[in-house]
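User: Quick sanity check before I run a bigger batch. Here is a single chain. Can you write out its predicted 3D structure?
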Amino acid sequence: MGNSTIIFELFGHAALADDLARRCSMTRGRLLLRRFPDEESYLRYEDDVAGRHVVLVCNLGRPDPHIPALLFAAATARELGAARVTLVAPYLPYMRQDHRFNTGEAITSRIFADVICAHIDALVTMDPHLHRYSALEEIYGVPVAIGASAPAVAQWVQANVEHPFILGPDAESEQWVGAVARIADAPWSVSHKTRNGDRDVAVAVPDLDAWRDRTPVVLDDIISSGHTMLEAVRHVRAAQLRAPVCVGVHAVFAGDANEALLEAGARMVVTTDTLPHPSNAIPIAGILADALRRLPA
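Assistant: Done. Predicted structure follows.
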């Protein structure tokens, strides 16, 4: 991309921004961000962005407190004369509410996309939670480049898990489970989930008898409350299989989800570093750098 592109980070993605700057030959920029006593955001660019391609790397794992500052950063870059603003959001929030399930509900995935697209020119993300949308472009009206974690996850599984069997905790996980299993040359299956509430989940696991000589790898894109993955872990342990390895793409981890998975019998919990967390073991900077390069000039 060259020195005409300058990259800034928001909310704890400094290491990722540094890595992307090195991989894509971008200038590393400085952005001052702090809060006033009343919690309003203050933001100032410490580098000249006029005429430059501005890349904003933003941690949106806890989106609501961070969205105003992200919008301020994008809008201010444009006001200061930036030629282009690209958002790199390794974890893209507000994708799960993709339908009006109950009368009066907000379809927040579309609203969030509209708000973001009003202030950016391009978007780079990793494995967005596409369920009822066939493509991210259905709701994001800017050029989009998506990084796929499956090759990196499969490489980690091959290097760290003996005789893996990949298990998805629900049908929504099938796209990631199938891709990782094919690359890792491992058998796979998915469970059936019935969700009665945010923390009330019933999981029906397929027959596991054929995989007693294998190490279960319970794989999902998002580990949030952990209840779906937790039910799968409990079924695996009840079937007296080996202690499973839990792998997630996005380490959202609400509450004590990580600890609960380990207490339920998981051998370990591993995630990519789309969101900073102690479970991070699978780096994705190279994947995001390739995605950045794929954006139209």
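The first helix runs from residue 14 to 24.

User: Great, the batch can go ahead then.
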